[in-house]
Amino acid sequence: MTDNTLSAADVVLARRELRRRKLSAFLFVAPLLLFLLFAFVAPIATMLVRSFYNPTVANLIPETLEQLAEWDGNALPSDAAQAVFAADLKRLANERSSGKLAEQVNRVFPGSSSVIKSTARRMRRVEDADLQQQGRALLLQANARWGDPEIWKAMAKTGSVYTPNYYLTALDLEASEAGGIQARDGAKIYVTLYTKTLRVAFIITILTFIAGYPLAYYLANAPTKTANMLMVFVLLPFWTSLLVRTTAWIALLQTNGVVNSFLMGIGVTSSPFDMLYTQFSTVLAMTHILLPFMILPLYSVMKGIDPSYMRAAMSMGDRPIPAFLKIYLPMTLPGLSAGALLVFIISVGYYITPALVGGTDGQMISNIIAFHMQQSNNWELAAALGSLLLAIILVLYWVYDRFVGASNIKLG
Amino acid sequence: MKTTSKLLAGTAALLMASLGQAQAESLTVVSFGGAYGAAQKTHMIDPYVAESGTNILFEDYSGGIAEIKAQVEAGNILWDVVDIEVIDLERACSEGLLEVIPQDMLPAGDDGVAAKDDFIPDALASECGVGVIVWSIVYAYNGAADGPQPSTIADFFDTGNFPGKRALRKRPQVNLEWALIADGVARDEVYEVLATDAGQARALAKLDTIKDDIVWFDSWSQAPQLLNDGGAVMVQSANGRIFSAMKDDNKPFEIVWDSNVYDLDVWAVVAGSPEKETALEFISYATGSKPLSGMADVAYGPTRISSAPYVDPSVNNDLPTAHIDEGLKADGIFWADYGESLGERFNEWLLK
After folding, report:
1. Do A255 and B93 touch (CB under 8 A)?
2. Are B351 and A192 inside 8 Å of each other by CB?
3. pLDDT tens across B241-278, in order?
4. Domain assignment of residue A348, yes or no
5. Do A213 and A142 have their domain in common?
6. Which residues contact B273 (CB under 8 A, 6 or more apart)?
């Protein structure tokens, strides 16, 4: 036993003290943690779950689905199955939830929404006993399309609670009848939009680098007074409302806007250019809006670089450009990585600016996600599209970590 | 998933309850804002508040049923009365997102005609809503510009005789209908043709002929703006927005009523609203002959026949109700069926 060893009572005390400290530390972060849990983790988790878990149809017509499970999928389902479905429809009409079923089936089989809803309204007025005896005939009488096996297949398909279908759609694919996977029969837009979004985000990252790097360099090396003044010009747009900045671009770029008037005034062109509502305007406006995200991390890293390194390199005979490339640039890499990642990730999910100045070819994946959230109400597909976007970013981050290393990111 | 939303809803409900105690009877009414919202405030909200003493929170939204669906699914109803477009109404109603409104509670018109005969039939067609206005999607041009003046929907698609940019709202609705009519389909067969694969291809092919001359916009507020700054020579717009630019800002715009696509807006009650009784009371007040006639301020047609005597005769010809013969009723059932699949197909075409 040495004098350094604590007595048993001391150990208990020390542990208690440690626990107390941990608890107080936890209490300090608890509000933020709770906020994150409610405002961030929970909604995102809900969204992820929605993209593959959809019990709506299974909850609405459980008995019909049980019957359809026994159906071979060739001709029409049995009379008994159809009678059960007719009874289910009557119940749905009385609960006023036939629209929920209609919406789900319509996604797989466009045009079936009105068939289901109008048939449900008809079934509401039929006696239960009649439904049981002549369900099939009553369905056919209400709408001839109940004689089409496709609508029954669509119903069976939407009945599965766990489904990969939304992810398949988000990749322009669909499940084939043979059980394999094939290219989607309908519109193929999502893969195009993903690649386009990534390409635009990449272009914007490069442009912010080209515009931001020299400026950050100048800011870091200029006299304090000039640097502070210029910094205000960098930060001022950063503090201005996003909508105001986007609208300002509309005023600048529109057909009879400032830029066109100027170009026509000095005689560069006789008729105005179409600049607004193009991919060009999207890229331009977003580069402007995201520029501070590139400049600020670069500036803080450059500020910390001792100018004597460059002087040392040059005094040993290196010429300015190679010295810059070999000495200065590698030292700014942490700031550059941080800036590029910030700009890239923000622009991948950007919504407002492309929506306002994007027009036809300025559309990005976020705009189609908004379409499915707000207009088509296909939240499941929106969730799958969003989850894929998240996955793509994580993969890119992983690739980046492999080749550049995430540990050298420096935000300031 | 259910549990999280319930937890969230519970927390919000607790917060709401503590806030709610301060003001006893309070109704949240949601509509589209702008000049239309202002007219509703003047002619419906303010008089009702003065008469009944109920507090009304009047808020804006941009249409669609996403927010209503979110509130009903989470069991956390924040809105009581909503102004909803008929094109969305059918869907919201059949999904159980709205309360059923007993139509026999509606008062007779000021001339004594019973409500069911006084309202135009479309206004009471759904059990979930009572019509507020008839509005119309038209196209307009700048009357002060040189050159020939368009008068039909075919002119809109004729870039030879009417050169220049055309502005359309970036969505399939109305654009595909117009394309088919311009391509020679009769107005009463449009939706029948559009339900077929060949018809959809035909509509997109017609749009394709002017694709390079189209400027796409996202929000109705951009329409008069585009016409004003010369961004387009013809713009698709809600008739009221052009009317207010003409009347309030003295713009030399002209409206082309040919093949206008008209639709109704209705008042509806969100399912599970804790203030359902007050909400219904508000709706029967707001759809009286006098309050409805105020909608003509922004050139939207009142849904009651008995409102006509209150409307300034000089605006009569600017109301969509005067141009129904040249128009086409937007088909909510068709768009509930094909909105999503045509939305995807339309986006595919846009990207081509």
Report:
1. no
2. yes
3. 999 899 989 999 999 999 999 999 999 999 999 999 99
4. yes
5. no
6. B77, B79, B80, B81, B99, B279
Q: Does B4 touch chain A (CB under 8 A)?
A: yes
Q: CB distance A110–B333 less than 8 Å? A: no
- Range(s) for CATH 3.40.190.10 in chain B? 2-134+264-323, 135-263+330-351
Nearest chain A Cα to B4, which residue? Answer: A42
Residues A126 and A155 in one domain: yes
In angstroms, rounded to a whole number, what is the distance separating the alpha carbons of residues B328 and B342?
19
- How many CA atoms lie less than 13 Å away from A26 in the CB half-sphere? 6
Per-position DSSP letters for A340-398, written without gaps between them? HHHHHHHHHT--HHHHHH-TTTT--HHHHHHHHHHTS--HHHHHHHHHHHHHHHHHHHH
Residues A144 and A208 in one domain: no
| Pick from A42, A189, A356: CB nearest B344 | A189
* pLDDT tens readout for residues B50-85: 999 999 999 999 888 889 999 998 899 999 999 999
Query: Hey, are the CB atoms on A114 and B333 less than 8 Å from each other?
Result: yes
Do A86 and A98 form a contact (C-beta atoms < 8 A)? no
**Matching residue, tokens 């400032």:** A258
Unique residue bearing structure tokens 């700054």: B229
Residue A231 sits in the same domain as residue A279: yes
Rounded to the nearest angstrom, the minimum Cα separation between B214 and chain A is 9
With CB atoms and an 8 Å threshold, state whether A374 touches B195: no
Which residue of chain A is at minimal alpha-carbon distance from B352? A361
What residues of B are in contact with residue A110 (Cβ under 8 Å)?
337-338, 340-342
With an 8 Å Cβ cutoff, are B91 and A186 in contact?
Answer: no
Q: Is the pLDDT of residue B14 over 70?
A: no
Considering the domain B2-134+264-323, what is its CATH architecture? 3-Layer(aba) Sandwich (3.40)
CB A263 within 8 A of CB A269: yes
CATH architecture of B135-263+330-351: 3-Layer(aba) Sandwich (3.40)
Determine the structural domain holding residue A214 and report its residue range.
190-408
Same domain? For A19 and A62 the reply is: no
Contact across the interface for B338 and A110, Cβ inside 8 Å:
yes
Q: A273 and A360: one domain?
A: yes
pLDDT surpassing 60 at residue A412: no
Are residues A197 and A149 both part of a single domain? Answer: no
- Based on the domain organization, do A126 and A219 belong to the same domain? no
Q: Using CA atoms, how far apart are residues B101 and B116, in angstroms rounded to an integer?
A: 13
Residue B232 has φ and ψ, to the nearest 5°, of -150, 150
On whether the CB atoms of residues B166 and B234 are closer than 8 A, the answer is yes
**Using CB atoms, which residue from B1, B65, B344 is nearest to A186?**
B344
- Choose the closest CB to A359 out of B215, B334, B345: B215
User: Which residues does chain B have within 8 Å of residue A254's beta carbon, measured at their own beta carbons?
Assistant: 229, 231
Alpha helices in B41-94 (DSSP H): 46-52, 66-74, 86-94
Asked if residue A329 belongs to a domain, the reply is yes
pTM (predicted TM-score): 0.85
Tens-digit pLDDT profile for residues A247-280: 899 889 988 889 999 999 998 888 888 888 888 9
> What residues of A are in contact with residue B1 (Cβ under 8 Å)?
46, 49-50, 53
Name the strand (E) or helix (H) holding B130.
strand B129-142
Q: Is residue A279 part of a domain?
A: yes
Residues of B in contact with A89 (CB under 8 A): none
Does A169 reside within a domain?
no
Six-digit token string for A295: 């400049």
Q: How would DSSP label each residue in A204-234? A: HHHHHHHHHHHHHHHHHHS-HHHHHHHHHHH
Whether A254 sits inside 8 A of B69 (CB atoms) is no
- Whether B77 and B46 have beta carbons less than 8 Å apart is answered as no
Report which DSSP code applies to A408: G
Nearest residue to A309 via CA among A288, A330, A337 = A330
- How many domains, in total, are found in chain A? 3
